[in-house]
Each structure stands twice: as structure tokens, then as C-alpha cells.
Specification:
CATH superfamily of chain B: P-loop containing nucleotide triphosphate hydrolases
Number of strands of chain B: 10
Oligomer: heterodimer
Radius of gyration of chain A: 19 Å
Strand content of chain B: 25-35%
Number of strands of chain A: 4
Structural class of chain A: mainly alpha
Helix content of chain A: over 70%
Number of helices of chain B: 10
Distance between the termini of chain B: 30 Å
Largest sheet of chain B: 6 strands, mixed
Number of domains of chain B: 1
Number of helices of chain A: 11
Largest sheet of chain A: 2 strands, antiparallel
Order of helices and strands of chain B: EEEHEEHEHHHHEHEHEEHH
CATH topology of chain A: ABC transporter involved in vitamin B12 uptake, BtuC
Radius of gyration of chain B: 17 Å
CATH architecture of chain A: Orthogonal Bundle
CATH class of chain B: Alpha Beta
């Protein structure tokens, strides 16, 4: 029974990883860019949700503000990492500079937050602390169920968007052949920011749900969640949004079950050990494509 | 005059790919640009499409100076390029490739036009929902032309469309170009298959190392012995 409860908890935790993993996989699949500011976007939305609620505002005010700030921050990052490198060197996807500048943004964002609120973990006074129900002795927290449903629904919606809409086709064309996309009339400079807005949205949503579900924030939560999301993305397959669901949920379960069986000190070892094992035996991940690099939707 | 290229230069760093050349295309013409590898033919087309920046000169299209327009804006206003190597989106279905061709369109019944492309190319129709990666080279070229047609261009530029096709398919391709031209589409054709290109073109230009070294009607170009020997594959 306890094990069944742990599996449920793992899935719920995993649903937050899924959203962040999808954010990573979108920029990798579209732009071949490992966006290191993703943890900061997650953390900023979480901290603002907490700070606004602690200051007496309705939690929705904090969440909306966190969402807006994360999306704007993501657009700023696009402007000064990806687009800047592209304008300067013709192609931002062929070298590590955008990655390094996104790492710079991550550190700056984290330290701005530390300057404002310090490094101590803060507890979030969740309005849904008792929103749960029990089936056959198993506890289901409603906000966590909502996260799980939302993350699956978002991946569904995203895959429909990519497959069926004009915007989706434009995004896929950029992922495969940016020059030919331009020949078709796609304004790459206007479409790429859309990817970054999606990134900001997904990370902020994950950060807000994490805050509500686990009632704890700190300037470093983004690092923990995002590294696990990267492991999940790799396990699912780089650039594959369906793989991100599987990978995110697997990591959530591995993490919770490792704590259950071996304790909290060791959790990083099974998570990253599993990722490395999968990289050795299936370098493309469980659902990945045969090509590593661009154009995999 | 539909397209007037005036003294344009294209440079890639130190490489002067197109050296102050001028050429023009009247409404309804098929104009071919011939020359060896590295003569600057592709750079010329890319400059007209807006894919490379001009370092000098002007491009006038339909009475407007488009030299500073972005490539998407040029597509929207009636310039389409069928790129070298076809550049089909292999991660997409055949139909999605055609829909990409219509990306810049804001009006018109696109689905009817897609059906018209399928009527023209039954092979594509059979595979409309399959990945474009399964198409043969000839089918890919047809898809690339069909995709460009869906942008409803006033001028279609083709970069080495016959490359890698069997003689039968090359013949079909040129017949298709001729048919599109009969329906009013102006054509700017870059080719290494000089024999076929001159057979179908109204006029031709010969490019060498970024310079125009000869121009005129196919008869005139073919009559020039030195030219045929040096550039036109011995006639």
C-alpha cells in the first residue's frame, strides 16, 4: 500500500518534470539549443507566486505575475542569446555560445532573486493544503492531479499544434531547414520568439504548480527540478515531446522510489545512473529519433 | 519589365561571387542563366530572393525597388525560388510540404489549388499523407515545383532543377516549365543542362566567375563557337 502511494507520488512529481522537459526538448528540437535559463524561469515564477501570496495578495495574482515575468524574461534571453548570436555569426545553432550566455543569464537571475529574498527556503501557504481525496487508502492531492492532467493535456495540445496548424508547420519547417522555411515565406525572426514564449509559459506553469504542490520555494529549486527534467528529456529522447512525458514521469517515480528504498541522500545517483545507462544502450532515448540534432518533430 | 537587376554585387567575405551584373526579364519570358560551377548562378538567384544581402546595385520587381525587402516579403509579392537540391521537408508529409508552399498566402482557395497540383502529379496524390522522404528524386522535384506554385508567384526561379534526373524526367520537367510559362508565369532558370535550357528559353545569359560574358537568344549563343566550346558543353 505504501509502495502504491509512492508510485502515485512519483507520477505527480514527474508531471512537473514533464512540463520542464518539454520546454527543454522544444528548444533542442527546434533550435538545437540547450537553454540553461530554463531553471531560472521556473524558479522566478515560483518565487513570485510565493512572494505575492506572502505579501497578502491572492495566489492567482502572484501566479499571473510570475507567468508574465517568466515569459518576458524568456523573450529577453532569446534576444540576447539566440538572436544575438545568429545576427552576429549567421547561425546560432552551430556552436556553444548561446548555451554559455544562457548559463550566464541563469546565474544572474538566481543571484538577483537571492539579493531580494535571500537563500533560505520559504514555505508557501497553499490555499489547497487540504484539497485531497482518498480511494482505497491511497491519498490523491487535487492540485497534484491537476498538474498531471495539465501536463498530459499540454503535450497533447502542443503535438496537435505542431501537426495541424500553420504555426506548427512553420515551427517544424524551421526545425528541419531554416533557409527553406524562409523561402516559403516564414519569417524566422518572428517565429523563434514564439518558441521562447512557450518555454517561459511551460516553465512558469511548472514552477507555480510545484509551489502549490510542495509548498516550498528557494532560489535553487529550479536547478534541482531542471536537472531532473534534463535527465527525463534524455531518457525520453531529445527533441521528442512524447518522450518528454515518459521521461519526466519515469524520473519522478525513480526519485520517489529511491527515497522510499534507500533514503533521500542518494536520490541523484539512481536518477543520473539511469540516464547514463540509457545513453549507453539507447543513445536516442526510449522514444527518440535516429538523428541527434535538429529537426525531430 | 517584370524583373530588372541593375549592377548587383554579392560578396561572401573576400569572395566576390557576383560582380556588378545586370540582367532583366520581361513578363512571360523564360530566361536561362548558364555557366560552370562557381560562376555565381545560385548567388544571383539568392540575391533576387533576398536570401543574401546585396553589397551593391538594385533589384526592381514589378516597378518597385525590392533591394531592401526581406525574403518572406518577396515571396508574398510573387517571387518564388525552387532551390538547388529541391530542399523538400522530409520530416513532413507530401501535403504538408504543399501547405508550406502556400504559407505566405493570405487569400484564395488553397485546398482547390492543392488538388490541382495533385491532378497534375498523380504520383504525389497517391502519397499525399506519406512522409515526403519516401519520394523518388523525380517526385521530389515535382513536389518542389508544386510547392513553389502554391505561393502563386509572378516569377519562378529554378536552381538546377534537372540535376540528378533521368533524361525522361528532365524532358517532363522542361515540358512542365513550358506549360507553366504558357499560363503566364515568368521563369528564371539556372541550369547546367545547357542543351535543354536553350531549347526552351527565350533568352540566355552566360556567367563566368561572377561576370556576364555573353547574352542573347539561344540561336545567337549557340552560333558562337568559342562560347559553345567553353561554356555550353560543345553545343
Amino acid at each position: 500500500m505504501l509502495l502504491a502511494q509512492q508510485i502515485i507520488n512519483g507520477l505527480m512529481l514527474g508531471s512537473v518534470y514533464v512540463m520542464v522537459a518539454v520546454a527543454f526538448t522544444l528548444t533542442i528540437g527546434m533550435l538545437n539549443f540547450l537553454n540553461f535559463t530554463i531553471p531560472a524561469l521556473f524558479m522566478v515564477a515560483a518565487m513570485i507566486t510565493w512572494a505575492a501570496t506572502a505579501a497578502g495578495f491572492h495566489w492567482l495574482v502572484g501566479a499571473s505575475l510570475g507567468m508574465v515575468v517568466a515569459i518576458i524574461a524568456s523573450l529577453i534571453i532569446e534576444r540576447f542569446t539566440y538572436r544575438y548570436m545568429k545576427a552576429k555569426y549567421g547561425d546560432a545553432t552551430e556552436h556553444a555560445l548561446p548555451l554559455v550566455s544562457s548559463l550566464g543569464f541563469l546565474i544572474i537571475f538566481e543571484h538577483v532573486v537571492i539579493m531580494i529574498w535571500g537563500t533560505d527556503p520559504m514555505s508557501f501557504n497553499s490555499p489547497f493544503a487540504n484539497a485531497q481525496f482518498v480511494i482505497a487508502g491511497l491519498i490523491f492531492a487535487i492540485p497534484q492531479l491537476i498538474s498531471l492532467a495539465l501536463s498530459v493535456a499540454l503535450v497533447f495540445a502542443l503535438s496537435l499544434l505542431l501537426k495541424k496548424t500553420q504555426l506548427g508547420r512553420a515551427l517544424r519547417s524551421i526545425a528541419e531547414k531554416p533557409d527553406t522555411a524562409t523561402l516559403m515565406g516564414v519569417d524566422v525572426g518572428r517565429i523563434v520568439p514564439v518558441v521562447f514564449m512557450m518555454t517561459g509559459f511551460l516553465c512558469a506553469l511548472a514552477g507555480i504548480l510545484f509551489t502549490i504542490n510542495y509548498k516550498n520555494v528557494s532560489p535553487y529549486i529550479g536547478d534541482h527540478v531542471a536537472t531532473n527534467a534534463i535527465a527525463g528529456m534524455v531518457i525520453g529522447g531529445l527533441g521528442n515531446i512524447w518522450g518528454a512525458i515518459a521521461g519526466g514521469l519515469i524520473i519522478g517515480m525513480v526519485e520517489v522510489l529511491s527515497i522510499h528504498f534507500w533514503g533521500a541522500e542518494i536520490i541523484k545517483v539512481p536518477v543520473w545512473g539511469l540516464m547514463l545507462l540509457i545513453l549507453v544502450f539507447r543513445p536516442t532515448g526510449l522514444f527518440g529519433h535516429t538523428r541527434i540534432g535538429k529537426g525531430k518533430f | 519589365m517584370l524583373l530588372e537587376i541593375k549592377d548587383i554585387d554579392v560578396r561572401y567575405g573576400r569572395n566576390h561571387a557576383v560582380k556588378t551584373i545586370s540582367l532583366n526579364i520581361e513578363q512571360g519570358e523564360i530566361v536561362t542563366v548558364l555557366g560552370a560551377n562557381g560562376a555565381g548562378k545560385s548567388s544571383l538567384l539568392k540575391a533576387v530572393q533576398g536570401m543574401v544581402r546585396l553589397s551593391g546595385g538594385n533589384i526592381i520587381f514589378d516597378g518597385e525597388d525590392i533591394s531592401r525587402w526581406s525574403a518572406p516579403k518577396r515571396v508574398q509579392n510573387g517571387i518564388s525560388l525552387v532551390p538547388e537540391g529541391r530542399q523538400i521537408f522530409v520530416s513532413m508529409s507530401v501535403e504538408d510540404n504543399l501547405l508550406m508552399g502556400a504559407y505566405s498566402r493570405k487569400e484564395g482557395d488553397i485546398s482547390a489549388e492543392i488538388e490541382a497540383v495533385f491532378e497534375r502529379f498523380p504520383n504525389l496524390k497517391e502519397r499525399r499523407h506519406m512522409s515526403a522522404a519516401v519520394l523518388s528524386g523525380g517526385e521530389q522535384q515535382m513536389l518542389a515545383v508544386g510547392r513553389a506554385m502554391l505561393a502563386r508567384p509572378k516569377i519562378m526561379m529554378l536552381d538546377e532543377p534537372s540535376l540528378g534526373l533521368s533524361p525522361l524526367l528532365v524532358k517532363q520537367l522542361f515540358e512542365l516549365i513550358k506549360e507553366l510559362n504558357d499560363n503566364g508565369l515568368s521563369i528564371l532558370l539556372v541550369e547546367q543542362n545547357t542543351h535543354m535550357a536553350l531549347q526552351y528559353a527565350d533568352r540566355g545569359y552566360v556567367l563566368e566567375l561572377g561576370d556576364i560574358v555573353a547574352s542573347g537568344t539561344p540561336d545567337k549563343l549557340l552560333a558562337d563557337e568559342k562560347l559553345t566550346e567553353a561554356y555550353l558543353g560543345g553545343g
